[in-house]
TrEMBL record:
Keywords: Lyase, Metal-binding. It comes from Pseudomonas trivialis. Residues 7-274 form the Pyruvate carboxyltransferase domain. This is hydroxymethylglutaryl-CoA lyase. It comes from the Bacteria.
Amino acid sequence: MSLPSHVRLVEVGPRDGLQNEALPIAVADKVRLVDALSDAGLGYIEVGSFVSPKWVPQMAGSAEVFAQIRRKPGVTYGALAPNLRGFEDALAAGVKEVAVFAAASEAFSQRNINCSISESLERFAPIMSAARQHGISVRGYVSCVLGCPYEGNVAPEQVAAVARELYAMGCHEVSLGDTIGTGTAGDTRRLFEVVGAQVPREKLAGHFHDTYGQAIANIYASLLEGIQVFDSSIAGLGGCPYAKGASGNVASEDVVYLLEGLGIHTGIDLSRLIDAGRQISQVLGRASGSRVAKVRDAS
Ligand code: HMG
Ligand code: MG
């Protein structure tokens, strides 16, 4: 299969990247990050989560972040909503696209959202109908698509079953998450072959954490499978609070560098993206997780 000419990036740094940070990050710093990301040309930014603050304290200020960002026309500012309560809070904050999140492994579903996979899908049904009523689009996530921190191997057929349910209930796109970053390029190709038989490939996205350093290879493998949407995180920030040892998502800067090298258009300005990553790395007081940013900053 030939490579796509355009790829869309979903920037998840302000949500997936920051949700795992132990120390509180000021709303102003989160707002500055989101605005810097839209200035760099990102068309989709996942800004926060409307989840229980007891479960993920760092996301508690998401409504304030939404109130203060400079919304650029044409940019989608998304947020996670695990239940109707989260959806209503998101709606009140002016969110136009929410994401529901399920897992392909029962144990992870219990640890992450305190219910079984089928209960989670039932919980999403009222979100889908409320979203339709209010003209809100819904994205779906499936976690643990290439392995689970509690159960180990996860069959692609199990991922396909959950992805198909999310698509059938009205998610316009389903993002497949390698939550613990153990997957290889071979696993990734097989995953999209199996899931792609149940959900159209143009409705699927790849979400790769880089724990084992395989994320860039997995994105390339996904491109070969016709996938054109990838989630990535500025400066490689992140991890999941319910997946111990999970490192950040693949760094947005590194993905843009890969895609530019392949002649694939993203509409993103790499230097401005690196600036955005430098800024948030300074706030967090640590070096960027992006290989490209590290080299550019050193030269
Ligand atoms: P629960 O305890 O089963 O829910 O949690 P509950 O309905 O019994 O409510 C318990 C308390 O939470 C109550 O408060 C509710 O009001 C409150 P209390 O009476 O104890 O004071 N509550 C809420 N508060 C704010 N917003 C809400 C909300 N809902 C209930 N929406 C629940 C169930 C789903 C709420 C909880 O498990 C939760 O919030 N989990 C969030 C987990 C999370 O955010 N994980 C990280 C994101 S997923 C991820 O990172 C993976 C991804 O990146 C893809 C990948 O990498 O694989 C997407
Ligand atoms: Mg994630």
